[in-house]
Specification:
four-stranded mixed sheet; 11 helices; 14% strand
Length: 371
Amino acid sequence: MLGLSYHILRVFNIPIKVHWTFGFFFLWIAYIGNKSGMTTIGIARLCLFALVLFVCVVLHELGHALTARRFGVQTKDIIISPIGGVARLLQMPDKPKEEFLIAIAGPAVNFGIALILGIILTLFTQQGVMPVGDPQRVFDYGPNFFPTLFVLNAVLILFNLIPAFPMDGGRIFRALLSLKLGRKRATRWASILGQIIAILFFIWGVQRGDFILSLIGLFVFVSAAGEYQMVLAEYLLQTQSVSDVLRSDFTAIYIDEPMSHVIQLHDQGQEKDFIVVDQWGAMQGVLHQEFIEEAIKKQDIGSSVREYVSPSYEPISQSWRLKEVFHLFQQKGYSIIPVYSTEKMVGVVDRDTLNHYIRSNTSLWKNWNLK
């Protein structure tokens, strides 16, 4: 759902990106300001305020990212969009305490900003912490700038603590539930609550004509389901073994066969990647789908398999966990792996079969059981 984003700077070695829709946000708030009868200076202050507010959002996300770094979790990037920001962590820690601290770090940053603004406004201004005048034209009065920033940071604290998973409050809720229920069940309950709140966000946003709130509701609803499926996939990979996805009915290709034979098998669609053996049946390598497609593109049907075979492969055991195999596919780029039992090849695991197994077993329609 994040789509195309543009890199603008790097903070603490974390890329900060802006979503392509961000520019439209300023056009929208300028329209709202004009519709409310703000002066040109007031609209300019409103746009400047939006920029400063999104700096606060970046600081909020950096709170998550830097806390995660303390627990060895790296951040891919921080993306700022019209509906807020998101720090894309490469993984979430398994320990509930660590997830709790990472989740609460963002609102804690907003609390710190609000606290500093509150002290300064209380001690050094006559107006205090609250904006004055017409709320529809609040930025027509210059001194309202920092009191409004104080109020919005306070609102961000409360809003982010709403237990709508995967918002901060939802992650805090899941972390606390995980202490009692375990990560899988806690995520399911947090997802259900998050989606209920997301529906309320959407309906309320439509009724008020607040499309930002409606977009947040839509984003939360889809993200809650996605997060639960990710946890289901993690659980599946950690608990299931190679024997659950082993394919014993595989086709072995002889190394001196012509590519025309392999292309014919490939076009039949039953198998896309192949084990390659010599005339005595000894393993010689693997023939990846990408290599077969290269031969098709070149119309190189007369060459032998020997010219396209890859000698890189790693034999594995049936007892391996799927998580270990998944990492091999990701890190080494393999598409098919031979499986051995007492020095005899008993089958293969291929990338497509594993992905299909994960998708079919993490379908939300199959996982309504909350036990």
